[in-house]
Amino acid sequence: MQIYNTLTKRKEEFIPIDPSIVKIYMCGPTVYDYFHIGNARSFIMSDIIRKYLEYKGYTVRFVMNLTDIDDKIINKSIKEGTDASVVAETYAKAFFEDIRKLKIKKADLNPRATAHISDIINLIKKLEEKGFAYNINGNVFYNVIKFKDYGKLSGKKIDELESGARIEINEEKRNPLDFALWKKAKEGEPFWESPWGKGRPGWHIECSAMSCKLLGETFDIHAGGSDLIFPHHENEIAQSEAANGKKFVNYWMHFGFLNINNEKMSKSLGNFLTAREILKTYSAEAIRLSFAQTHYAGPLNFSDDLLASAEKGLEKLKNLADKIEEEIKLNNNEGNIPEFDFEKFGNNFEAAMDDDFNSPQACGVIFDFIREVNRAISGNENINTKFYFDVKDFLQKTAEGVLGILDFSGVLKQNDFPLENDLIEIFIKLRTDAKKEKNFALSDKIRDELKAIGVILQDGKETTTYKKAK
Description:
The protein is an alpha/beta fold. The protein folds into three domains: about 1-265, Rossmann fold, CATH 3.40.50.620; about 315-405, Four Helix Bundle (Hemerythrin (Met), subunit A) (Up-down Bundle); about 420-470, no CATH class. It is about 45% helix and about 15% strand. The strands form five sheets. It has a four-stranded parallel sheet with strand order 4-3-9-10, sandwiched between helices. α4 (about 115-130) packs across α6, α8 (about 285-290) packs across α9 and α9 runs antiparallel to α12 (about 385-400). It is globular, with a radius of gyration of 25 Å. The protein starts with a strand and ends with a strand.
């Protein structure tokens, strides 16, 4: 298995520190708002990577932090007239709701910064003792000049870096590139007691303290969005390696930028989309497929056309899943077994994913598989049920288990629940009437409410059909 390592700027053979377990730290959300679709890409692609490693037989220890104390959280609490902890808890809860809807497996651990204050303080003290940190009136800064390898992840050189938009200008600093490890509490802000007085941790030190505490001073994979390479991940390396005197992470993985309709996502442009909003219109499987069809490290242009195309592609997968379930339900063990090379498709899927998690190629393997299975079915009138079990097994391991673009547990037949289906048809009729009366608000509400309980409406030219997603 080959992984592109941002640190070395090349693909490298993946060799975990412990042959049986892979330790991964993924930068999670700052819980001050609903996460946007760019964050969703990172969360989904890291989920696919994690699940593929499990598919390969590894035990994966997956840690994703929640930043629950930060300037953004404090500003939101002031704006809403509430406590910062209330803001953090509200949006942490929303985060877990939304990743569940996106079919993202919950992390083994979701550490919160506020629960690791003592670990953070101890790490800062170690940096101070070793001469990498200095205290100015209760504000503790990291002395970048002292770390000779600063810039090795991003490729930036200290003598070429200037104070800019992402670097806070502060006259207390010895160097404008120095960054805060501990921030002195301002009036009305949350604070913790520390050797330097009342204050709170800086953003970068939180991830260093939590990852080293939970995964060890050196671990396998650190992942996050490309926007975190500098300064966040660069600073994590500087802190961790200066404090512990050893390599921090073996493989650095970064997810590419996401644009909306060829424009950078921005609230000022009115194209800022949250995952929660997108899920009102499109299925989790469509969102996952639209992301998986682009390599995780490359840029992605997100649009309605992209999602509509993904939904269309998923119809082929869902139709085959329906066919499989119908045939297995009949349990007709008579008949012939078509000649079919399952091993070839399994090998092709693994070859794609082993090459730096090439999910676009892996998706191609899945759709080639669907085409060949349909061809085998169309050429045989009487097929042994074992064939359908084998097809289902392959799709469960790959399309469902790794990519998350299929959910066999949600494949329900329309005639299984007659009363429920009659009620759904009544709502569809009410929605059709509302559209005729140009009451689009009611029409959309019916569609969204049905979707919320797992009923996906599909509008055709003349009629509306539905699928049950749960």
